[in-house]
Amino acid sequence: MSERNAKRARQEAGAAAARAPDGRSSLRRAAVPLLVVVVVAALVGGYFAARNNGPAGATRVTHQSDGALELAGTDPVTGRHVDLASYRGMPVVINVWGSWCPGCNAEAADLARFARSHLNVQVVGIDTQDTSGAAKNFYRKWGWQHPSIADPKGELGARLGVQGYPTTFFLNARHQVVTQIVGATNLAGFNQGLSAATSAG
Predict the structure, then answer these.
(1) Are residues 109 and 133 both part of a single domain?
(2) Among the listed ranges 20-24, 37-41, 57-61, which one has the minimum average pLDDT value?
(3) What pLDDT was estimated at residue 59?
(4) With 102 labelled, which of 13, 34, 52, 84 sits at a CA distance of 20 to 30 A?
(5) Do 86 and 17 belong to one domain?
(6) Can you state the angle between helices 132-142 and 102-117, rounded to 10 degrees?
């Protein structure tokens, strides 16, 4: 073979090698879109799982078929999770309040006395349209010790059908609402509501 022909053969071999894809490069190029698909699928799956299940300790209020109230959320003072189910078998008094509410302030001292004098009854507040800082100041001012559930947008109160503030619901041991008081009350009013709830079983 002449030197000219040999040179041409080398050039053609080099061109063929340049056109031939490297096996590892091809695998890497194929793996990139596959990885993107996997990541996107994981993100989409996580989004729908979070939307369907909701975060742990989410605020909720529902009624069971027997009329029992289910209520849970985060305490604006302690940050702890509060769940009505924790007090199953006990009468419960739910007081819907706000630090900005004149009637709530008017009855706060009597509610504190009521809670301290009825250790077999659980008082649970719903702090509506309020801030955590204001709630903490309110608790310190009136010496409250019972838990509350934060309701910054008033959604829980709306779902409970609250028409004014404060509103106090009296639940029997099965957590069925027996009676309620709309507006500020006093120690006698709290005791009367509790009596109605306990006599209803």
Answers:
(1) yes
(2) 37-41
(3) 55
(4) 84
(5) no
(6) 60
Count of domains observed in the chain: 2
| 62's tokens | 């529902």
d(CA 22, CA 43): 32
Contact (CB, 8 A) for 190 and 87: no
Q: Which of 19, 36, 53 is the last residue of a domain?
A: 53
Same domain, 26 and 75: no
Domain that holds residue 42: 3-53
**Structure tokens given for 199:** 């006599």
Identify the bridge partners of residue 127 per DSSP, sorted by sequence position. 97, 150
DSSP 22: P
d(CA 193, CA 199): 10
Same domain, 127 and 66: yes
Return the residue matching tokens 């009296």: 170
